[in-house]
């Protein structure tokens, strides 16, 4: 008696038996496998024919049984399968999964071995053939009204280790994990403890102290569990309101906030003649300011000159807020408390992003966070700019202008920053005879740290494409030099130098003359340098005390920690700190550039000025860390073009809705569809009537 097949198997056998296309990519491999299996069975039967006639009859009956089973799929059964097409077990997606499993098994057992043993064919991996199969099946699924045949999961990213900030748990790497629920202000927050195996084993005690709580709050190491960094999170689906077919949310580019009426697939929209509502939450509808207009016009002019008029670029300043750089503890105790240096440096933090429309959808391909220290900022940061973060993804078109456009955005920003100031009534005459007004320029220098990112430590965009090349330190330095040389040719930059040469030419004699920016490597270097010098002096003092006698040693060891810090810092000379810092800067002199916007002769006529653009307050873009954390939480990946389109759409929606629930917006000066803080009036508790 023939055992019944499941519905999915019946559908597969029905297609196999009734397919009239000899070149069908779906069933060709299965037919080939069946022929090979039949030939093997016949050979085995022929060999055992003389030994046992009963076994031969059994094998022949097996072959006949397979043939009869294939003929049992009648037309009525095929209609029944078609009527149950929406059932999970017989859906096209389930059939694709079944075909894919058969395809993988066949490859691993037959084709892969044949390709690798053959001397006439190049070896082909299973992944390449599987990709070929998936592409073919995508076309079939689209004909049936689905998005694709694939089960897609988000990229498994490296996890940061709690034991060492520079340590990461790679994909498929093992780590120790513990989760604790902490109540803060009536809300329960989940605190995760993640350690790589090396850092976990280096902890000498059986207890792990939480650095964010009391010393008595300890976690036993036995409570940690070992996990593998391979947990896949699959993309979510949306269901069509008409045909009830499932699409990947990213394939459908559907956002519930943008289209609250629900999702309607493309096939149903064409069939019912339904027009998709216009997206009111795009980057182009975000408000502009003078800086974004200046950079955008410059970049689009470049594209027009290179016959790429249809590749328009959209530039927006997404955040422009006031912030402060606080001097770190050791540096503050040594220089700020004595009045040699200010303990805070105010600046304006700006987030500048670039967008482009590809396939009628916006993508974000460039981002930059800058710090602008104005004329009111105390030295040494006065009138300086620091490019804190700069990042890009490779989806800009045309590809041959990608590097040129990146450089044009930076040069456009420097050009605007250089010309930012009050216009005077005095004119000067250019060589060509045109008269130009003098400006009281605001910024003197632009500081650039040429430090490339890596796969474990990304800058702005979460999860770059794996095929995107990351420049090494040497190539990145050459890229910045090419940029600055171009700025000199266009009279945007007067000159540029390495930081070490700039210090020598400026005749600096103290670390208080070095720029002190938020997130820069110089503050961290100075802090660790002072700490090392302090520990070295304390060690030498303790050794001398032990020689003098046990009573003196006991007295010094029981001194208060603050008294030790004071004594050590009195011994550490300012000259010694500067000389050691200069050695570190000399070692990394090729990674730090100082672009000079104009000569020192102009410095004497500079006057206090204010920025023309109004402040833009946006929690999402206030800092790079906050934006990156949000992107990581909501899976705003830039690993592929389809995910970049969805991530850009979600980011733009969040920008339009930024702070709408908690901040009252002035109705008089608000731009349509934008919920930004009012900077023109003092109305804060209620909207303008």
From TrEMBL:
InterPro entries: CBP_P300_HAT, Histone_AcTrfase_Rtt109/CBP, PHD_P300, RING_CBP-p300_sf, TAZ_dom_sf, Znf_FYVE_PHD, Znf_RING/FYVE/PHD
Keywords, in A-Z order: Chromatin regulator, Nucleus, Transcription, Transcription regulation, Transferase
Gene Ontology CC: one annotated term: nucleus
Catalytic activity: L-lysyl-[protein] + acetyl-CoA = N(6)-acetyl-L-lysyl-[protein] + CoA + H(+)
Compartments, as annotated in UniProt: Nucleus
GO molecular-function terms, A-Z: chromatin DNA binding; histone acetyltransferase activity; transcription coactivator activity
The protein's enzyme class: transferase
GO biological process, any: positive regulation of transcription by RNA polymerase II
Record-annotated CBP/p300-type HAT domain positions: 280-660
EC number: 2.3.1.48
Residue numbers spanned by region Disordered: 41-61
PANTHER family, A to Z: CBP/P300-RELATED, HISTONE ACETYLTRANSFERASE
Function recorded in the entry: Acetyltransferase enzyme. Acetylates histones, giving a specific tag for transcriptional activation.
Protein name per the record: histone acetyltransferase
Species: Trichinella britovi
């Amino acid at each position: 008696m023939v055992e019944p097949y499941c519905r999915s198997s019946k559908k597969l056998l029905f297609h196999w038996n009734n397919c009239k296309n000899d070149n069908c990519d779906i069933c060709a491999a299965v037919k080939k496998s069946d022929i090979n299996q039949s030939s093997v069975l016949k050979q085995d039967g022929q060999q055992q024919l003389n030994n046992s006639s009963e076994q031969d009859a059994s094998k022949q009956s097996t072959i006949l049984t397979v043939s009869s089973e294939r003929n049992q799929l009648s037309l009525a059964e095929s209609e029944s399968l078609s009527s149950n097409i929406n059932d999970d077990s017989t859906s096209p997606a389930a059939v694709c999964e079944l075909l894919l499993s058969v395809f993988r098994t066949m490859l691993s057992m037959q084709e892969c071995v044949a390709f690798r043993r053959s001397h006439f064919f190049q070896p082909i991996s299973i992944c390449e053939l599987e990709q070929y199969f998936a592409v073919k099946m995508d076309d079939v699924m689209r004909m049936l009204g689905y998005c694709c045949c694939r089960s897609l999961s988000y990229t498994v990213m490296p996890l940061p280790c709690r034991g060492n900030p520079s340590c990461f748990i790679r994909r498929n790497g093992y780590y120790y994990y513990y989760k604790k629920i902490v109540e803060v202000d009536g809300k329960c927050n989940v605190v995760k403890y993640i350690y790589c195996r090396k850092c976990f084993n280096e902890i000498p005690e059986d207890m792990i102290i939480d650095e964010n709580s009391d010393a008595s709050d300890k976690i036993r190491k036995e409570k940690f569990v070992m996990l593998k960094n391979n947990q896949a999170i699959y993309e979510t689906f949306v269901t069509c309101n008409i045909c009830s077919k499932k699409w990947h949310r990213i394939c459908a580019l559907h956002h519930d906030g943008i289209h609250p009426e629900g999702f309607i697939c493309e096939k149903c929209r064409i069939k019912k003649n339904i027009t998709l509502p216009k997206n009111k939450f795009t980057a182009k509808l975000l408000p502009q300011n003078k800086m974004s207009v200046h950079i955008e016009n410059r970049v689009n002019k470049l594209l027009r000159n290179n016959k790429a008029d249809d590749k328009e670029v959209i530039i927006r300043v997404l955040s422009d807020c006031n912030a402060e750089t606080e001097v770190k503890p050791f540096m503050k105790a040594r220089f700020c408390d004595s009045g040699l240096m200010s303990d805070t440096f105010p600046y304006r933090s700006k987030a500048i992003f670039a967008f482009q429309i590809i396939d009628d959808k916006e993508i974000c391909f460039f981002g930059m966070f800058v710090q602008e220290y104005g004329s009111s900022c105390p030295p040494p940061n006065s009138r300086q700019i620091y490019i804190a973060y700069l990042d890009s993804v490779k989806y800009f078109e045309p590809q041959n202008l990608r590097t040129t456009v990146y450089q044009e955005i930076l040069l456009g920003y420097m050009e605007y920053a250089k010309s930012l100031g009050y216009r005077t009534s005095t004119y000067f005459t250019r060589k060509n005879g045109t008269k130009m007004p003098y400006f009281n320029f605001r910024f003197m220098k632009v500081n650039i740290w040429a430090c490339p990112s890596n796969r474990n430590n990304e800058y702005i965009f979460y999860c770059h494409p794996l095929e995107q090349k990351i420049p090494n330190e040497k190539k990145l330095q050459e890229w910045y030099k090419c940029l600055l040389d171009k700025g000199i040719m266009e009279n945007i930059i007067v000159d540029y130098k390495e930081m070490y040469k700039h210090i020598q030419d400026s005749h600096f004699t103290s670390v208080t003359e070095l720029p002190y920016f938020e997130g820069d490597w110089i503050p961290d270097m100075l802090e660790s340098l002072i700490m090392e010098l302090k520990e070295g002096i304390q060690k030498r003092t303790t050794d001398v005390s032990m020689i003098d006698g046990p009573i003196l040693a006991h007295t010094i060891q029981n001194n208060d920690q603050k008294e030790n810090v004071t004594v050590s810092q009195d011994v550490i000379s300012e000259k010694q700190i500067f000389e050691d810092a200069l050695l570190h800067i000399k070692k990394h002199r090729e990674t730090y550039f100082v672009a000079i916007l104009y000569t020192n002769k102009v410095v004497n006529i500079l006057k206090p000025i204010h920025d023309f653009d109004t402040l833009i307050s946006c929690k999402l873009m206030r800092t790079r860390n906050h934006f990156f954390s949000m992107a990581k939480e909501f899976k705003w990946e830039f690993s592929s073009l389809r995910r970049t389109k969805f991530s850009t759409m979600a980011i733009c929606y969040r920008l339009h809705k930024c702070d709408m629930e908690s901040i009252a917006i002035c109705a008089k000066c608000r731009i349509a569809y934008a919920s930004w803080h009012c900077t023109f009036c003092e109305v804060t508790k209620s909207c303008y009537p």
